[in-house]
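Hi R.,

Here's the chain you asked about this morning:
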Amino acid sequence: MKSFSFPEKHATFAQNSHSYYIKMNTRKQLQKKVNCLRTLIRLFRRSLDEPKHKDGVECFLDTEAGRIRALAYNMDTPETLPLYVNLHGGGFVLGRPEMDDPYLLHVAKTAHVKILSPDYSLAPEAPFPAALNEIFAVVKHVKLHAGEFGIDAQRIALGGHSAGGNFSAAVALMDGEKRELGLAGLVLDYPPMDVYTDAGEKPLPKGSIPPKMSRLFDACYCENREERKNPLVSPCYATPDQVRLFPPTLVITAGRDSLCGEAEKFKDLLISAGVDVTFKRFEDSKHGFTLSNKPDAREGWQLIIDFLNRYLQEERGRDRE
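And here is the predicted structure, written out as tokens:
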């Protein structure tokens, strides 16, 4: 199997425009912009008077990557169940597990799984590959201590929304080489799969992420332009051989999302490599649409529930041993 490496330099317009962006934004300036964005989001959430109650139970995992906070769902059930590890979105720089809290207990109960939602480190304080290594370590930790958590080590699925989908695909790529996790399923919900291509060169349907914001997210996560073509940063640059061992994968995209094309390109790559892929595009939906209570969000979560029920049932999990 081809190992991951940094690509040769390509003198393109996108590269030059991004290099200009980096020169005009030092690491300190990037941090300042992210801090302002985080403050605005906190103020906005307070104005909504969001409920303080959460269903997730806070826990801490002592992994090989350090002590990592997570929210747990349905973990007190005495029955040994499959595990779904859920990764929140936020452009690599924003968000916490609490973002997905309103949905995960329902997923756990109806998909008959236990769920862990890790609070991975954010960029720019912790750029690539910090969060990726933490997530891999979380899955490895719970697999090695499956008995303590009351989970079936052969029935672990991983998935995420937006940046969480990028991390999920990258973890599966890492495991294709390390062979330590043996994931039983993968969920990619409107993921950014091409961090290398400049945001201004991507489609910009009405309501999509503004290019300036995308450039900020990309620069914070991986400042080195050439490193972004590493499949662990931009999974769509993986080869068919690198993805051939992927588990069954659910890919969800939004038609009014600038990331739609790259996620579907990755979906096609998986299919060409013989991976079992379930796919749906929500034509009139925007990026982040599952974080609501609208009909398309409910349908998206039901897709995830159905997928977990299908691929984490005991008979199919045992077949993958």
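One quick note: The beta strands are 57-63, 66-73, 81-87, 114-118, 151-161, 185-189, 249-256, 277-286.

Cheers,
M.
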